[in-house]
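Homework-ish question, so no full write-ups if that breaks the rules, but can someone show me the predicted structure for this set?
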Amino acid sequence: MSGDEGFSRRDLFRRLGARGKEVARARLEPVIPVRPVAPAKNIEPRTRHRVVPLHRPPGALDEEAFLAACTKCGDCASACPHGAIVPAPARFGPAGLTPTIIPMASACQMCPDTPCITSCEPRALRIEQPLRMAEARIQPWACLAHQGTFCSVCVERCPVPGAMELVDGKPIIDASICTGCGVCQYVCPAPENAILLMPLTARPTASPSS
Amino acid sequence: MNQQRAQQASPFESDRRNFLKLTAMAAATSVASSTAFGSSAFGETAFGADSTDATEAGASDVRWDKAPCRFCGTGCHVQVGVREGKVVAIAGDPLAEVNKGLLCMKGYHVGLALYGKDRLTQPLLRVDGELQPISWERAIQIAAEKIHAAPERFAFYGSGQWTIPEGYAAQKFMKGGLGNNHIDPNARLCMASAVTGFIATYGVDEPAGCYDDLDQCDVLITWGNNPAEMHPVLYSRVVDRRSRGETVEIIDISTRRTRTTEHAQRHLVFRPHSDLAIANGIAHLLIANGNYDEEFVNKHCAFRAPSDPPTLPGRPISFDEYKGFVAEYTPEHVEKISGVPADEIRYLAALFGRRDVKITSLWCMGMNQHTQGTAINCLVHGIHLLSGHFGRAGDAPTSLTGQPSACGTVREVGTLAHALPGGRVVMNSEHRAQSEQIWNVPAGRISPMPGFHTVAMWDSFCTPLADGGKLDTLWVQVTNPGQTLPNLHKLFNRKEGLEDKFLIVSEVYPTATTALADLVFPSAMWVEKNGMFGNSERRTQQWFKQVEPPGDARDDVWQTIAVAHRLHELGVPGMKDKDGRFLFREEDSGGKEVPIWEWEHYYDLNVDERLFEEYRKFTRLKHKDLAPYSEYVKTRGLRWPVVQSDAGEWRETRFRFVEEQDPYVAKGKGIDFYHSPTHDGRAQVWFSPYVDPPESPDEAYPFWLCTGRVIEHWHTGTMTRRIPQLDRAMPRAYVELHRADAEALGVTSGDVVVIESRRGRIELPAWIDGRGQPPRGSVFVPFFDESKLINEVTLDAYDPFSKQPDYKKCAVSVRKLVKP
Amino acid sequence: MSVSGIVITLGADEQHAESALKAMQKEQEWLELGERSGLRVPAVVEAPNDPAAEERVRMLLQLPGVALVDVVFVGFEDPTLAPASEVSSDPS
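A: Not a homework solution, just the prediction itself:
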């Protein structure tokens, strides 16, 4: 009648809990948000295409075209009712001060009327472009539900119908529907944020006529 | 996402790979070398604004120690990491039997509960409507003077979050010092009906089983219970068995679909209040089908029914009378009352009729916050006894508590208006004499009259003295009645503006309660002080102070003793013991008094240990023996009775009343209910009829309202809402509606609806097909949100025996908010 | 092919940390270590697919001396949005 075998499946999780012992941080620091990746000082982008991807607002043109079109006017940021659009830091070179989203600070809420796109006069953001901004992935080793305790926050708060669902109590992302808005990352209460969010490295090029 | 896995590396592919590798290394390098690692873009530093670079400071200077989690009654243990006087890390404690290293989403963040930006750090006095900082000296003086002016009009309101020594100090101060029994806890709102249920059935409080039952049962029945949300680690413990190939059938009997239901094989949705009919229906079939456990009943049970006038012990009845009473509850009749299909009742009864399955019942607020709470508790114990599903591992009726020390402090120390420590009651002269002897106070010090229970206490406090109010000064510790009392307008908000009422609140954050406080004591919390908790499975737990409280915040025990000592100085006779010494006198090893009422000397000795060792003397009467303090230091808690073996070892008890498990059951007895109310070793199988609830939906208020909790927040959210990760995950309250009701009201998810009862109204966003799904005609609202006080709407009707109010059902109207 | 940028945080015990580093240096096939900064080591993990990458991260976590592994970058692109010509253009 002993419960000693309890949780035997959770070797990994137990280690996740216990490994903090060794290093002094189970939650020593807040989650490392998966941020837009800044280029390290000693590594030059090797091609114009190979700029480090930024989390752009929805409907952004291909990065090259986007940088050419964006006037850094800030209208999209003013139009965003959630304050989710912020200027990129100046150290991003040509991309400095262009609009970006830091989902851990404030995620895109996928407004049905896309005020950011509507406000973009230079048409760097376009409604005919895919709204997709990034690719979200669940890291099962960090996800509370995947590791055997109860959580469904990301699925409940996901603003894109069908992008996430709970299967057997565990969240799953449908990559074909997910726009990478980052709400799941913003709301994730796991001790190590379980959502990996990568800005798209490539977006489709809009036809020149549009 | 995996489509692009080309098997052969093209030149392009390898070029792209190099690029990706460079980018990946750049990203990793920038994070690894960043001094901002840990301070995130959103400006919240989870632990410590001073955390510049954790790795540079190194990990070696972090000190780890154990503590039970601050939040719910499950009693998980965490490992607390402290560096430079600050809690910097929390990890699940793999050595803890309760949680085996696992935590729930709240537990992982429990350390952050200490570091909300608005911690109270100095005593505050309301002057001209505003709370102004004052010195501790003055604060203690003012409190003492208020109490001194009219000790009989003073009341103490505490909680199941009181540590054992905190509750014990308050208990001794009131009943042993002031001779005043007006002390009651918020646990009255939480598990009082479980207490009366245990006492009416077994003659002694608290579950016989323990969490080990969850590992052993074949069937788990959740009665109006949602452990997936409220006791997630326990429910994980059950659900996880399936992944190991074990079968455990979960049957959820509830008034709405919840996260718990998702893991259940069967879901029985009943009309609010009709759980009594379901239990009676099971009992009827067990007898009618002849598959009750006749041998168990003959040996170990007696039968009872409500008396007239109603009393907790009720009246004895014969088996035949019992059989006659339950005969009315045929499956079809039960279906008519409850809405649960007759065949489901038959299924349940057949299950209980089987000897080869082990059945554990779990319940918490659903059965306790019930105007027939005592009755339904008794009935569920009754069907376990009648069917012999008792006393084997996995066969147990077990109630859970919502607070970390509802059992350890409230139920065992007895911080209730009628109780004395160790299962004693003030009405019993022997119990009073025993308590007076241990406290070394003169005979007759303890009043034989029970004090005000919670609802009566607040009603009286909110009534002007001129209109018959009996209380004028009330001291609240470790809880938030301004949010949790039912019918808040009547029981709390009414205090505002009453000149002759004085509210003292010991708190860690500004709350709905401090909003009306006249005097605020800033308190130390959790690992800022020594403490002991007792969880839902009789497990007593201990921890040491690990960090200093912020500013001038101080321990609640100290506050109580400091006020007591000031009263002593003012000449209040009750603050002296029989020998004329201070009631809370503590001496050093040389016999010299240590002035523990002075903060600088409070930690000269371990006051917790002293109080606990004194309290231990009370625990033998009801065979709830506790081990010495030092034993709890060594363990992650021990389940009482903890009895010393001949070899000198302290041995805990997993299953009470069971031979070879419980040291107080004699050899050969098998099972012995040695505190039987009938003094013959028998437990009582109760009959109680279904009766209508005090308020049901009608034309004006056509919906049922049920209130409850969510996994992200604990209690009134005063701690969890200050933890950014939890606040983001669940920022505000909502109302769950059935889709068809929502459509009829023209409401979609996110629309604001107005919920209104005869007592109050509230506006909330709707959530349809969300985490919980109430049936048609019923809505659910969580109570954690200070900005959306659902208790302004709830009903203050309560159970006649436990005096516990019913937060689970009242009648409301629901409509879409029309903006002018 | 999956490419991940990770930050390995070593434990405080220097002896364990050293042995972990040595063990990791043997895995050049799929693990590229960057310049150590305090207890942190940036690194790149390559794997044939995502599950394999996760498995490799787990392996690292299990090394005595490794306290944490944080994944900070995953190199993945959606081919439907990134035609080959786009990705492979301009080899400067």
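Now go work out the reasoning yourself. Hint: Residues 192-400 of chain B form a domain with the Dimethylsulfoxide Reductase; domain 2 fold (CATH 3.40.228.10).
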